[in-house]
């Protein structure tokens, strides 16, 4: 059998044409796949918002910021005045309006009850719900229905003076956030300017002197410095801001110096030096932009730290802000003595501080991962 007969018998020609066809490839001269260039800022933005937790914690912070602006503007109550001009006993430590019918308990001596039954008592006798005698203390326990609370929109009740806790909470949050941002921004600017410079000149006299000063400063507990500076400078807004800056200035310097040490000998810095870039340019135009992400993380973490320090000063017995001013620390300090009577008084500022701290901590981690994905997780 010849090859032609064999191919015809087994249909090899059709099989070869079907299975082993070499498709023509059209040559494309000078063709490139071109797309829109992705910038560094876009990549950081995409990495940050690709994490659903970053969305959640950012939303919490934005909601808190919005409430600090909106609530004081729309509230019918002020920061310093009671919700009503009636007797203080009628409006102090009221429960929230959404908690149902409210009652107040009065403890009155038996002689006062017997002799003063009527107008001299600190409540309307028509609203009495129950009366009982406490034999062990010789007092009469009178439970009175508080009808005043129904005429006021008090979301978190009132404080010991009769002021609206909800309004004071967000005014206090705004006060504490303004203080925290002012201190954190000032510390970061000072710390970065000095830290990057001494990090570039590591081992030189300037670096040695600054680091020895920082070590001496950090060898003393922070609380002692806070008490000392607050005693000297006072506890007004600007005074307490200066106190916290003097206490926290070492942290940003230390961080900026450390990050500078990690990049100052990289190839792109050496290349900049070879091409004639000045020392100032290498430090602030090449090194600083490359460590800005980590410095932003440090900045975000400074905000809850400042709020914590402000609250610490108050717990140490120092009055922060003006007389009767609402700050988160002041609200917690005054509210804790009435926690059994009006738990929402202290619960509000505690929850706000907790949410701010957790949210900013996680946002800082999200920023770290977005700026430097190699260290994520």
From TrEMBL:
- Cellular location(s): Cell membrane
UniProt cross-references to InterPro entries, sorted A to Z = BP-dependent_transpt_permease, MetI-like, MetI-like_sf, OppC_N
Record membrane topology: Multi-pass membrane protein
Q: Which GO terms describe its biological process?
A: peptide transport; protein transport; transmembrane transport
Query: What is a single cellular component term in the Gene Ontology annotation?
Result: plasma membrane
Q: Please verify whether the record's keywords include Transmembrane helix.
A: yes
Where's the ABC transmembrane type-1 domain? 177-364
Coiled-coil segments on the chain, per record = none
Q: What protein name does the entry list?
A: ABC transmembrane type-1 domain-containing protein
Q: What is the lineage of its organism?
A: Bacteria, Bacillati, Mycoplasmatota, Mollicutes, Mycoplasmataceae
């Amino acid at each position: 059998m010849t090859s032609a007969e064999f191919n015809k018998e087994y249909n090899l020609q059709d099989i070869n044409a079907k299975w082993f066809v070499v498709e023509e490839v059209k040559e494309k001269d000078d063709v490139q796949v071109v797309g829109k260039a992705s910038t560094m800022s876009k990549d950081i933005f995409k990495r940050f918002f690709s994490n659903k937790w970053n969305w959640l914690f950012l939303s919490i912070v934005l909601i808190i910021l919005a409430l600090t602006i909106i609530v004081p503007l729309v509230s019918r109550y002020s920061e310093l005045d009671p919700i009503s001009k009636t007797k203080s006993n009628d409006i102090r430590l009221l429960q929230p309006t959404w908690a149902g019918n409210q009652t107040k308990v009065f403890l009155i001596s038996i002689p006062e009850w017997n002799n003063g039954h009527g107008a001299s008592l600190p409540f309307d006798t028509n609203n009495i719900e129950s009366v009982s005698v406490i034999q062990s203390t010789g007092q009469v326990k009178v439970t009175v229905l508080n009808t005043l609370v129904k005429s006021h929109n008090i979301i978190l009740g009132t404080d010991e003076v009769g002021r609206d806790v909800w309004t004071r909470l967000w005014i206090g949050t705004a006060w504490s956030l303004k203080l925290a941002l002012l201190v954190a921004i000032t510390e970061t600017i000072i710390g970065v300017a000095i830290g990057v410079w001494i990090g570039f000149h590591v081992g030189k006299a300037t670096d040695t002197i600054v680091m020895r000063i920082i070590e001496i400063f950090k060898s003393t507990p922070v609380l002692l410095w806070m008490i000392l500076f607050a005693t000297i400078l006072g506890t007004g807004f600007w005074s307490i801001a200066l106190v916290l800056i003097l206490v926290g200035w070492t942290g940003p310097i230390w961080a900026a110096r450390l990050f500078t040490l990690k990049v100052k000998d990289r190839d792109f810095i050496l290349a900049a030096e070879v091409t004639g870039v000045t020392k100032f340019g290498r430090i602030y135009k090449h090194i600083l932009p490359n460590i800005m992400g980590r410095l932003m993380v440090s900045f975000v973490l400074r905000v809850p730290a400042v709020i914590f320090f402000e609250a610490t000063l108050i717990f140490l017995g120092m009055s922060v802000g003006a007389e009767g001013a609402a700050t988160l620390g002041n609200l917690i300090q005054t509210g804790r003595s009435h926690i059994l009577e009006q738990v929402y008084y202290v619960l509000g500022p505690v929850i706000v501080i907790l949410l701010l701290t957790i949210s900013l901590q996680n946002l800082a981690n999200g920023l770290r991962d977005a700026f430097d994905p190699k260290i994520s997780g």
